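Example 3.2
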Amino acid sequence: MSASRFLQSFAATVLALVLLWTGVLAILHHLGRLRPPPFTNRWEFDEKLALLRARPPAHIDVLAVGSSTTFWGLDGGLLERELDVKMFNGAALGLKMHQTAWLVDFFRELHPEIATVLVVSTLIDFEACRPHEAQLFDVADVRAWLQGRWPEFVWYFRYFDPVGVLRAARDLPERRALGWDRLASMRLDPWGGQLLDVPRSEVPEGIVRGVLGGFDARCYEALERLAASLAAARVRLLFVLAPMRPGYLAERDPEGHHLAAHRLRLRSLLAAHRAEFLDAHAQLALPEEAFFDAYHLRAPYARRQTQLIAAALRSRSPDSERLAGAAETQPSEPVPAPGG
């Protein structure tokens, strides 16, 4: 075969594959079985990016960001009504604190009008903050996606993953239609989060028991950098220590040493940058039945947490005022890491 004929055959093959993949994408899109492009390969965040592209918010007053305790722990509509603001839940499942800090920077570049950052966090967010894992996606690509610079199908070539697309297509509409009583639900609320009320019987035992790993100093350093940058930009930061299931703490931290050291370190570093700390675990003191696993709230209790947060955001709490005053009058002292 001559070189020219080979090149013609190769070009024809490539064109046929492009047309075939485009046809597959078109059919899946028509059937409602096409997942968003896998910018992060986290279903909840890729769905969130699709939501932001389809209905970009005119502005965001309050950005909620963090891991699953933020994603599943807030009633966005209730927070908006209580505070008369526009909020967005930018959280994603499984984030560590350095990833949360990175994500805050991304959203603030996208929406520089953000006046308040809200982080709802638990102990597990401070485990293993590996620097190379901080960046969750290609910022230039995601900005281009959100701005609609290219047709949607282009991104399925840029992030070519036929196996993932076809696997997701099998049950995507069904999972998007699941109610809030199913852990497998892929339905986002209009603010980018989820309120779940999952029966304990539907949750695998390993998730109910949870884990408590080693604490990483780099996670606290990431939070301190975030608090410092927000303070410099005059953006309010409210850090919420999320409630945790009593049975989980009784098993994983029976003497309370990990939680006490974690709380002390958070208070110290947040106070140093005039950020606010809300101990929702202590203030709500929720019973076992409030949780569907180790540290995630069922919907009615997530609404109680949202009301507590709204009250804290309406005005500076006495506790946060005390912390700010302490930061001004006392030198910063190193605090031992939990378990250290």
